[in-house]
Every structure is written in C-alpha cells, then in structure tokens.
Design brief:
Elements lengths: L10 E7 L4 H14 L9 H4 L1 E3 L5 E3 H4 L8 E7 L5 H8 L4 H4 L3 H6 L3 E2 L21 H18 L2 E8 L16 H9 L8 H11 L4 E3 L9 H9 L3 E4 L6 H14 L3 E11 L2 H6 L2 H19 L5 H4 L3 E8 L8 E9 L5 E9 L2 H21 L4 E2 L22 H16 L9
Parallel strand pairs: 1-4, 1-6, 4-5, 6-7, 7-8, 8-13, 9-10
Antiparallel strand pairs: 2-3, 9-11, 11-12
The protein binds nicotinamide-adenine-dinucleotide.
Nicotinamide-adenine-dinucleotide (NAD) binds next to helix 1, strand 4, helix 12 and helix 15.
Length: 429
C-alpha cells in the first residue's frame, strides 16, 4: 500500500556517537568529498544501487524514493576524546592524509560534544571528554539537551542518531529492560549495572523524535522497553552491528551451500585487527557481545532442525585477535569443512584482506539515509527491512531474524516498493 512520504526538504543533522572513531570519520570524510565531486560513494546502496520498478524499467533507488541529498547533511556527535574529526581521522589512519586534506576545513569544524560514558562498559578506554552525570536519567537529560541545541544551532529539520562508538561489555536482558516503565525506573534509580550509556543515547534520541541506529552489537535498543518507546514516539530504530566483512561473506556463502544442499561440518573464523575497535574487543567481556552477534548467523541460515543430515552438527568458532601492526586493515580467515555426494569431505578457505572502516562507512551512511526515509514515511519501531546492513538483525520475540543476504535484499526492495505502491515487476526482479 502506498505510503505518504514527507519530502526530504531542509537539513538533516546526523549525530554520531563515537564521532572521532574510525568508522565515523571515514564515513564523514567520504560524504564531504563526494559532495565536492572528489570521490564516488562506492558501496552505498542509497547512492549507487538500482532496482526495477513495476514497468520493468531499472532506476536508481534515490530516484524512486525521496532520500536526503548528501548536500543537506550536517554532521556532529559525541566522543570521549576532544579531538576534532580531522585530528581523529589522522589518528585512526584509515584514510591517507592527502584524502583527508581534501575536506580538512570541514572536518576541523566537527568537534565532539562530551560523551555519556562509563568506564566499566569499555575498560580499555580512558577518555576524559565526558559528561558529569549524577544518574543515568541525568545522562539522558543532558543528551536530549545536546540534540535540541545541535538541531537549533544548525537549523536542522530532522535528526538521526547513529551509534558508531566502541562495543560495550555484554549486558544480559533483564527485568529492567522488559518495559518502558521498568527501564525509566532503573534510569532514575541509577541502576548502572543494567542501564548502559548506549541505552541513554538511544532513549534520548527516541525522546527527541530522532531515529536511532545501533552499529555495534550492544543490547541497547534491542529490548522490549525500547521497542515500546520507539512505537510510542513513532520513531524508527535499526541495528545491530554493521555487517561489513567476515559476516557478509558468511551470509553469502551459507545460502549457497544450503541452496545446493551441500552439508557443513565446521566453520572456523578468525581475524587479526589492530585498530581501537580491536583493542576494545580484546577485553573478554566486550568480545562476548561481538561473539554472540557473530555466532547467530549460521544456524539461522542452515535451519539444522529441518536439515539434520546436512547441518545437524556444525562446529562453529569465531575469534578476533588484537594485533596492532595491522591497524584498520583486518585480515580474516575462514576454513569451512563441507561435504557432498556420499558424504565426501571438501574444504574451502577464504582469506579476506579487508579494510574494516572502508567497508563499514557506506553501511553506516545507508542506515542513516534509510532511517530518515522510514521516519518521513511514518514507520516506527524495529526496521526489519534494514537487516541487510546488520550482522545481528533486531527482531521481537515473535519473529526470527533473516540473515541470508539475498533474502535481506528482497526485503529492502519490497519495502521500498510498498512505500511507493508498486509490486515486483516479474520473477526476474
Ligand atoms: N569497522 C567495521 O567493520 C565494523 C563492523 C561492525 C561493527 N563495528 C562497530 O562499530 C563501532 C565503531 O568501530 P570503529 O572501528 O570506528 O571503532 P573506534 O574505536 O575507532 O571508534 C569508536 C569511537 O567511539 C568512542 N566512544 C567509545 N565509547 C563512547 C561513548 N560512550 N560515547 C561517545 N563516544 C564513545 C571512542 O572514543 C572512539 O573514538 C565498534 O563498536 C565496532 O565494533 C565496526
């Protein structure tokens, strides 16, 4: 059914939590350079992908639905380090100095607001640019004030808040997360064990009517309390965990084995990574959050309960090793033990020498652009159609997540078609 979509007029403020991080500064630099025609937005679905419309014609997605123009985006955000985006990007060492210099002035203008931070949630980090908050509720109030001020100072029509900050320690779902009332009570009582700083950012964003995107695997917005709040406030939420490298490969290869009815005995995945993200994930409590996110993929795609002969006994292991010399240039190895006709075994080795933030930057941008579209289309709560961009797609207790990249892509196209009141053109979609 066709939806009324408000036009993307005026400015969109994009507030990034962890604005000094590798992903954030890489995304921002790319957008600023693209605006000046000095780069192409490679990897961005919103900017480059096409799809067929009912007539059979193939069009750019941005010509089918009204997306924000990159020229209308204003960046800001929070970080625990006070460095401006240029200094932070130099530190991250993802992009070369010559590329950063193309937009140096604009990057220098982006100065982080003091962060809502709790050292217990990321013990490897020691930033000082942080808020002084008596309680978690006070943290929320200060963040809401930041959002309102940024919006007014920058003459923005709309705001999107994106978490591209470090992965927090694993937080299990507890009673305090199960209803909005219980969560607000826990915030007011300053229950710091169950209310993470990321939950304060998410709550503040939703309270201010801004879509919130969780780019890390944090529990954060993935709770009944936040689902309830986002519906109450009519605000979209999306996440979790950018699907950038190894999991992207997994969600392409696993559907291939399944489609051809090939069996799998084992899947061993390991990585070396030397950026700050790798350092934070070196802490076991922080790695656990990531591990849960990375492990869920395979079972979901293979459906071992339906195909026990093929996938009833898959040994799946995921490791991330902090190795400073590689910086952001992650190297990932996958060994997959498969079996075919008469049970004969075969091995597949994948060695992906990737650049973590180069892969994650367009995903972060697309999540921002599509969340803003969803808000203007009146959509709220979990944005399941954005699972395509996420390693650990959010879902409520009644639904299963979809991990298969091709099914996820169909969900993107179908949602966009529904927005404009079209159906798929033919089986050659
Ligand atoms: N790069 C990828 O491919 C990829 C893929 C999936 C998920 N992620 C996730 O995205 C996030 C960012 O990755 P990155 O490589 O840019 O990491 P990074 O360490 O370079 O950046 C994170 C930034 O967040 C800041 N920060 C930490 N806690 C904060 C808080 N409470 N408030 C404000 N700022 C805070 C840090 O100071 C740092 O500048 C990580 O959680 C990572 O796990 C990255």
């Amino acid at each position: 059914m066709k939806q009324e979509i408000k036009p993307a007029t005026g400015r969109l403020g994009v507030l990034v939590v962890g604005v000094g991080g590798a992903v954030a500064t890489t995304m921002i630099t790319g957008v600023l350079a693209t605006r000046k025609n000095l780069a192409k937005p490679i990897g961005s679905i919103a900017e480059m992908a096409t799809m067929r419309v009912q007539s059979g014609e193939e069009k750019l997605i941005k010509d089918i639905v009204p997306l924000v123009n990159l020229n209308d985006i204003v960046f800001g955000g929070w970080d625990i380090f006070p460095d401006n985006a240029y200094e932070a990007a130099m530190y991250a060492e993802v992009l070369k100095e010559k590329d950063l210099n193309l937009v140096k002035d604009e990057l220098q203008q982006i100065k982080p607001m003091p962060a809502a931070f709790d050292h217990n949630f990321a013990k490897r980090l020691n930033g000082t640019h942080i808020k002084n908050a008596a309680t978690r509720w006070d943290m929320v109030e200060q963040l809401r004030e930041d959002i309102r001020k940024f919006k007014a100072d920058n003459h923005c029509d709309r705001i999107v808040v994106l978490w591209a900050a470090s992965t927090e320690i694993f937080v299990a779902l507890s009673e305090e997360h199960k209803s909005l009332e219980a969560l607000e009570k826990a915030m007011k009582e300053n229950n710091t064990a169950v209310v993470s700083p990321s939950m304060c950012y998410a709550y503040a964003a939703i309270a201010e009517g801004a879509p919130f995107i969780m780019g890390a695997p944090n529990l954060c917005v993935d709770t009944p309390a936040m689902w309830e709040f986002s519906k109450k406030m009519n605000v979209p939420i999306a996440g979790k965990d950018f699907k950038s490298g190894q999991t992207l490969m997994k969600t392409v290869l696993a559907p291939m084995f399944k489609t051809r009815m090939l069996g799998v005995n084992g899947w061993f995945s390991t990585n070396i990574l030397g950026n700050r993200d790798g350092e934070v994930l070196d802490q076991p409590e922080n790695f656990k959050t990531k591990e849960v996110s990375k492990l869920s993929v395979i079972d979901n795609i293979f459906e071992p309960e339906k195909f026990p002969d093929l996938y009833g006994n898959v040994y799946h292991k995921v490791r991330i090793n902090y190795y400073p010399p590689r910086k952001d240039n992650k190297e990932a190895w996958d060994n997959i033990d498969i079996f075919g006709w008469m049970g004969y075994p075969m091995e597949i080795k994948v060695n992906f020498l990737c650049r973590d933030s180069i892969l994650a930057a367009p995903i972060a941008l697309d999540l921002v652009i599509f969340s803003d579209l969803a808000a203007r289309a009146g959509m709220c709560g979990i944005q399941t159609w954005l699972s395509f961009f996420c390693k650990s797609p959010m879902h409520d207790f009644e639904h299963q997540p979809v991990h298969d990249l091709f099914q996820q892509w169909r969900m993107v196209k179908q949602t966009l078609r529904e927005m404009i009141g079209e159906t798929a053109p033919s089986y050659l979609d």
